Amino acid sequence: MMKILMPTLMLIPLTWLSSMPWLWSSTLSYSFLIATLSLTWLKNMSETGWTSLGLHMATDVLSTPLLILTCWLLPLMILASQNHLKTEPLNRQRLYITLLTLLQFFLILAFSSTELIMFYIMFEATLIPTLIIITRWGNQLERLSAGTYLLFYTLISSLPLLVALMMIQTKTGSLSLMTAPFYYPLIPQHNLLWLACFMAFLVKMPLYGVHLWLPKAHVEAPIAGSMILAAVLLKLGGYGMMRMSTIIEPSSMNLTYPIVALALWGIIMTGLICLQQMDLKSLIAYSSVGHMGLVVGGIITQTPWGYSGALILMIAHGLTSSALFCLANTNYERTHSRIMFLARGLQMILPLMAAWWFSFTLANLALPPLPNMMGELAIIVSLFDWSWWTFIFTGLGTLITAAYSLHMFMSTQRGALSIHVMSLNPTYIKEHLLMLLHLMPLLLLIMKPEIITCWLT
User: Fold this and answer.
1) Per-residue DSSP letters for 218-254?
2) Where in or outside the cell (predicted)?
3) Cα–Cα dist 45/60, whole Å
């Protein structure tokens, strides 16, 4: 574990000591080296328990894919942000990269912690760099209200979790995830305790109904903020739910019904919102709410198919939505607008970028044999086994997802070219490299899906 944590921390002095011509290239190459080193965690994956075990940190089949996704995303964020920050003063550029590095450091500690209190502290610590990135480098004046929404939604929902963890500590004397099966009978199984433990993660996902902070944060955030929010920070909620469900469960099924109902209803409602959305980043943000609704449904069923489908969909959605935000950023840098119809017809000017748009649109609507389809199918099967009524909502949600994904592609790439976009900058090699580094893991996971289908193998 230290072979990743120490180089990640050393990225901070490298950022502040590098001269201006070498700042972005040195941090990018160094973070790529860290991402490559993180792939060694795959070698130690075990189906029976924890690996890379230390006093406070360890990895297992649930945390390893999310840890690698976190490390893989840092160089992609640096690559995507370079053009956005080139006019900023040097110290501000250094501070930006430092915040991204701290965010990765906190996320690695959160995903690898074996103590629930340490996980809670890191879960909250990720809020600080995210908040600074959104409020300082956001695009519009509404970034302050977006940061306020993010702060208060997260803090208010996570306070009951802290109280619940203190209560479990008092009753059992331990909050270790590795010894959870032994102290599980000592925990009082109560609906309020279950809700207190899960509410912070349901808001972080976010569940439909407590999702209003997400579109605001996504729309106002700079490109790196949108990427890390969609790809990793939302997955903290799913990871926390899967961890806590091994410790505590509701004393009656009556509490899980409204959660699943909200999640499935959110798939349909957010899909319909996407169909009438004009703002490109807002559309991608609302589609994340719908996909995370499926993940919530899969986790609540507490079956191997549900858990495995949730993990697959979290990894696949992380790569897909991050790539879609990068594509939206390339449009914004050229047209200076997020309105989709003002960017129509770009396929005629930028045909290779249109090919990337088409690829990730198909990934977003879960085209076989991509991991997105594997995850959605596993969750739909587990929900159907839980209650056959869910098939109506998941089936409708799948159709609506396909509809708004194609609507997004047609609105931005096809049609007559707008008059004001007759002269555009060409696409750059780094943008195509960025898209390739998103698509390559998705395609490689098709060939070796057992990396993320741990509960089914």
Assistant:
1) HHHS-HHHHHHIIIIIHHHHHHHHHHHTTT---SSGG
2) Mitochondrion membrane
3) 6
How far are the Cα atoms of 223, 286, 288, 398 from residue 215, in angstroms, in the given order? 14, 6, 9, 21
What residues does each domain of the chain span? 257-457
Q: Is the peptide bond before 369 cis (omega within 30 degrees of 0)?
A: yes
Asked if 321 and 287 touch (Cβ cutoff 8 Å), the reply is yes
| The pair of three-digit structure tokens given for residue 341, joined into one six-digit string | 């119809």
- Residue 304 burial (10 A CB sphere; 0-12, 13-18, 19+): middle
CA distance 24 to 305: 42
End-to-end CA distance of the chain: 25
DSSP characters for 355-403? HHHHHHHHHHTT-TTSHHHHHHHHHHHHHHHH-TTHHHHHHHHHHHHHH
DSSP state of 114: S
Sign of CA dihedral 128, 3, 240, 120: negative
Taking residue 224's Cβ as centre, other Cβ atoms within 10 Å add up to 29
Do residues 407 and 361 touch, judged by C-beta distance below 8 A? no
Taking every pair of Cα atoms in the chain, the longest distance, rounded to a whole number of angstroms, is 69
DSSP reduced 3-state for 113: strand
Residue 457 has pLDDT above 70, yes or no: no
147-169 residue pLDDT tens: 888 888 888 888 999 998 998 88
Lookup: tokens for 243: 């961890």
Across 94-138, the runs of DSSP E, i.e. the strands, are none
Count of CB atoms within 10 A of residue 384's CB?
16
Whether pTM > 0.70 for this model: the answer is: yes
C-alpha span between 314 and 308 (Å, rounded): 10
Return the closest-CA partner of residue 297 out of 335, 254, 263. 263
Share of the chain above pLDDT 70, in %: 96
Helix 23-38 / helix 90-112 crossing angle, nearest 10 deg? 10
Q: Could you give phi then psi for residue 32, rounded to 5 degrees?
A: -65, -35
3-class SS of residue 294: helix
The H or E element containing residue 75 is helix 63-81
| Residue 390 half-sphere exposure toward CB, CA atoms < 13 A | 26
- Across 178-211, b (16+ Cβ under 10 Å) vs e yields eebeebeeebeeeeebbebbbbbbbbbbbbbbbb
> Phi then psi for 138, rounded to 5 degrees?
-65, 165
